Amino acid sequence: MRKWIALILLVPSFAFAAGSSHPLDDVDIDLKDKASLQNGAKVFMNYCLGCHQMQYQRYQRTFNDLEIPEDLGQQYLQFTGEKVSDYITSPMPADEAAVWFGAPPPDLTLVARVRGPEWLYSYLRSFYVDESKTFGVNNLVFPNVGMPHVLESLQGTPRLAVEEVLVDGELVQRPNGLTNDGNGKLNEEEYDAVIRDLVNYLVYTGEPSRLESESMGRGVLIFIVIFFVFALLLKKDYWRDVK
Fold first, then answer.
1. Cα 97 from Cα 236, distance rounded (Å)
2. pLDDT one-digit tens code per residue, 47-71
3. At what angle do helices 34-43 and 70-77 cross, to 10 degrees?
4. Alpha-carbon distances of 51 from 107, 108, 175, 208, 209, rounded to whole Å
5. CA gap 229, 243 in Å, rounded
6. Domain boundaries, the chain
7. pLDDT tens digits along 94-110
8. DSSP letters of 4-64?
9. Which CATH code fits 27-209?
10. Sign of the torsion angle spanned by Cα atoms 32, 35, 36, 41
11. Predicted pLDDT of residue 176
């Protein structure tokens, strides 16, 4: 019993050790911005779906919620012949992916709820060239990451900038942000906007009914307030003759 208690107490420390101390950037998430969500879905289908999937999200639900006509969605966002009612799955075989990447690429349906939008936004903007790694890249937010920088064609080639600082009388080098070769299709501002749209879409898939739930919650609160007023008036009426 004591061994199990000790193991449970150690779990948070393991999770903390696996994280990164790199600061996270804020991101403006707006689930009412249909244009942003549509662009985020397009980026995901074109750049992420080859490895990752969303096995709990259907194409049809995505098209309906994001106001994408089904015929256009099937033409431009479905590439492997699935039905519009199918789940968003990757064509990559899980067993082969485990061999190539060391582990199967994770399902991304709930990744925004697990990691948080700020983590995702910072992570997708923090890749840099590292020739010592299998895929030639590393990441400031997720050190020793096991995936390639699939958005490099958009961002350009990011490189780690270093600075020399004096520590205990010795000059040492430490990371000081990233530089870019400028060979991408987008400039920095445009790339950040694309990543924001992608993260916005991932937040949506993590809880597709969020806007409906929030609207219903506001309605319930309004009902409770109105009911409280009537209950208070009724209580005063009942107790009017009590002395």
1. 69
2. 999 889 999 999 999 999 999 999 9
3. 30
4. 9, 10, 30, 22, 26
5. 23
6. 27-209
7. 777 777 777 888 999 99
8. HHHHHHHHHHHHHHTS--SPPPP----TT-HHHHHHHHHHIIIIITTT--EEEEEHHHHHH
9. 1.10.760.10
10. positive
11. 77
Q: Which of 123, 127, 138 is nearest to 198 (CA)?
A: 123
Nearest to 185 by CA among 150, 157, 158, 155: 155
**Amino acid at residue number 79:** F
pTM confidence score: 0.79
Q: Return the structure tokens found at 116.
A: 């948080």
- Say how many C-beta atoms besides its own lie within 10 A of residue 63's C-beta: 21
Query: Measured between alpha carbons, how far is 72 from 63 in angstroms, rounded to an integer?
Result: 9
CA dihedral angle for residue 64, residue 43, residue 31, residue 81, rounded to 10 degrees: 20
Confidence of residue 7 (pLDDT cuts 50, 70, 90): very low
